[in-house]
Design goal:
Pfam families: DER1. This protein is mainly α and about 280 residues long. It has eleven helices and two strands. The chain has helices spanning about 5-10, 15-30, 45-50, 55, 65-85, 90-110, 120-135, 155-165, 170-190, 200-210, 250-260; strands spanning about 140-145, 145-150.
Length: about 280
């Protein structure tokens, strides 16, 4: 068995950073080092008092120490780590961009008065869980050792539990909306013949390179049966079942040959292709 220090060192960088940042934010509140409303999302303070840090800090506060806080932190440690080690393996910049896109989507939704919440960390965590559920729809999940269900239904089960416990459902729902928007733009829409418009910007690649953590390869990632399946063209129906397709042997050979070419047409991002820092 590994020690806590070994477990901490084994965590992938992005999930480790976000989880530790959320833990330190709540620990600082417990020590009375700040007023939580000084980091809450307030568009009035952002635009009138130029307190722009509120656009970022609200994503690191999961609330005071409580069972709710512990559950959200465990979600980061489990589903965030599984995403980063699976579909986003060797794609650290893409994972960072997914979180940035989710945060931007949530900020836009929060501009609508009835969707506004002061702290949106819970929504961002729920987005991570939703994307995981679409990547691993057939994974078997046990809820408190009582109910076993497929991963596809995990966000809905967590939503039902929050309803039973009397928690607000708004942050869960908008987190699922942000997660579905990301999955639609990166998987569903391109598979339907649309253009892949959510490519990770060059400055995010440079940021990850400057950070010096994680891996972002400059050549197509080798196939891994446990990672990146959805980004090679997997799609699922609303019932969580995988869509079946058949390919003739000659067409399969052509597909394999085109996959070896660096510029083989649309949808290359879904075969694990990454981009050099030069953007080519």
């Amino acid at each position: 068995m590994s020690t806590p220090a070994q477990y901490y060192q084994s965590l992938p960088p992005v999930s480790k950073f976000y989880g530790v940042a959320c833990l330190m934010t709540t620990s600082a509140l417990y020590l009375g080092l700040y007023d939580p409303w000084n980091i809450a999302l307030s568009y009035q303070d952002v635009f009138k008092r130029f307190q722009v840090w509120r656009l970022i800090t609200n994503f690191f506060f999961l609330g005071p120490f409580s069972p709710f806080f512990a559950i959200r932190l465990i979600m980061i440690a489990r589903y965030g780590v599984l995403l980063e080690r699976g579909p986003f393996d060797k794609r650290t910049a893409d994972y960072v961009w997914m979180l940035m896109f989710g945060a931007l989507s949530l900020l836009v939704m929060a501009a609508i008065p009835f969707l506004w919440t002061p702290f949106m960390a819970g929504s961002l965590v729920f987005m991570i869980v939703y994307v995981w559920s679409r990547e691993f729809p057939n994974a078997q999940i046990s809820i408190y050792g009582v109910v076993t269900l497929k991963g596809f239904y995990l966000p809905w089960a967590l939503l039902a539990l929050d309803l039973i416990f009397g928690a607000s459902l708004m942050e869960d729902i908008i987190g699922m909306v942000a997660g579905h928007l990301y999955y639609f733009l990166t998987v569903i829409h391109p598979l339907a013949g649309g253009k892949y418009v959510l490519k990770t910007p060059l400055w995010v690649h440079k940021l990850v390179a400057y950070w010096g953590e994680g891996i972002q390869v400059n050549s197509p990632v080798q196939r891994d049966p446990s990672a990146g399946v959805a980004f090679r063209g997997r799609s699922y129906g609303l019932d969580g079942n995988r869509a079946r397709t058949t390919t003739a042997p000659s067409e399969q050979n052509q597909t394999d040959n085109s996959a070896r070419q660096p510029n083989s047409g649309e949808g290359v991002a879904f075969r694990g292709k990454s981009y050099r820092l030069s953007g080519h």
